[in-house]
Amino acid sequence: MQLRDFKARKVTDDVMWVGAIDWDRRIFDELIPLPDGTSYNSYLIRGSKHTALIDTVDPAKTEVMLSRIKSTGIEKIDYIIANHAEQDHSGSIPIVIEQHKEAKVVVTEKCKGMLCDLLHIDAERMLVVKDGDTIDLGGLTLQFIHFPWVHWPETMLTWLPERAVLFSCDLFGSHLATGDLFADSQADVLLGAKRYYAEIMMPFRSNINKQLAKINDLEISYIAPSHGPIFNIPNFITDAYLDWVSSPPRNLVVVPYISMHDSTRQMVEYFVDGMARRGICTEQINLGDGDIGKLAMLLVDAATVVVGSPMVLMGAHPKVVYAAYLLNILRPKLLHLSILGSFGWGGKLVEQLLGVMPNIKAEVLPPVLCKGAPKADDFAAIDALVAAISERHAALSNKLTRKS
């Protein structure tokens, strides 16, 4: 097949983007929706002595990356920096090292083992670097910043001080296919970055919050992530991350639910209307056809989640169980949790849902379950739940006001 001609794009002096845009991909890891596609960013750095490639691309786009590299006129790659072992970053390394026989793959110790396991790369081809180690490319320096559990245990960032570029791997990334190389301050990029953070980074927010200190003193001009546009206004994304990882939750209630015969829907709509009348922002998401990524984004800011489900064969609806499981692994900053549900003859809906959310340390407010369609007593119980949540949110708002 004739190789199509793809061109490298300049990031700054001596730094070229040689990645690939995946406009049509709609799911990642067979789990994460990609409504806006994605990109796999790879960067080529040319020093006076050596050339380095920062990450590669997903194997499906290897030829695109190789074409962009060829367009630079560079014939020798000395170092391949593997910031992360996951295959959307590392998958093309075997092809690159086959073409560049003397190239060393630069890794953390943990990443070395992973690349041996995942891609069967010969350990002799790898150069292990410690936190803070550097490589001199000739007039340009690569410094390696170990940043484990963002979002895998072997991850590192790479800093190019002479050009003030931070190659941040998955940190600050976004699943967004766009022809724009730079993010500037576009709202759609921030939305994509928030979705990416919510779906991938949020479980590790405490660790990220602690480790951000490692880059606080860097005078960064460009943040070049592995997915999405490059941030040429760095505080646009770093300020957002500080808010997401460390700020208290907002005055927001999220209601993921599903209804089979309308009873649960009636309960949810009555609850949401009650919250609205008390001036509390409430978002309901129908899990039957809802965007699980939107749910994840709302969880970044939510103070309260109220899960709604009918009983199915003595337990919660499977789609609600799935959402509860995701809630558990995403570990949002929730303060309060409750359940609305309906049943025909009985079961253990509440016990089951709480059982799949052991990581959620929020206060559990009394659930409301009704037999059949909701009746006056059931609506009264929902009123009581609305009042309890409103009281807690009023206290939260007062606390936030005093802090500001």
Brief descriptors of the model:
404 residues; alpha/beta; seven-stranded mixed beta sheet; 12 helices
Helix content: 25-40%
Beta-strand percent range:
15-25%
Category by helix and strand content: alpha/beta
What would you report as the Rg, rounded to the nearest angstrom?
24 Å
Number of contiguous helices: 12
Q: How many angstroms separate the termini? A: 61 Å
Write the layout of secondary structure elements.
Layout: E1 9-12, E2 15-17, E3 20-22, E4 27-28, E5 32-33, E6 38-40, E7 43-46, E8 51-54, H1 62-71, E9 79-81, H2 87-90, H3 93-99, E10 104-107, H4 109-119, E11 126-128, E12 134-136, E13 141-146, E14 156-160, E15 165-169, H5 187-201, H6 205-211, E16 222-225, H7 235-246, E17 252-257, H8 263-277, E18 281-286, H9 292-301, E19 304-312, E20 315-316, H10 318-330, E21 336-343, H11 349-355, E22 363-364, E23 368-371, H12 376-403
Parallel strand pairs: 8-9, 9-10, 10-11, 15-16, 17-18, 17-19, 19-21, 21-22, 21-23
Antiparallel strand pairs: 1-2, 2-7, 3-6, 4-5, 7-8, 12-13, 13-14, 14-15, 19-20
Helix pairs in contact: 5-7, 5-9, 6-7, 8-12
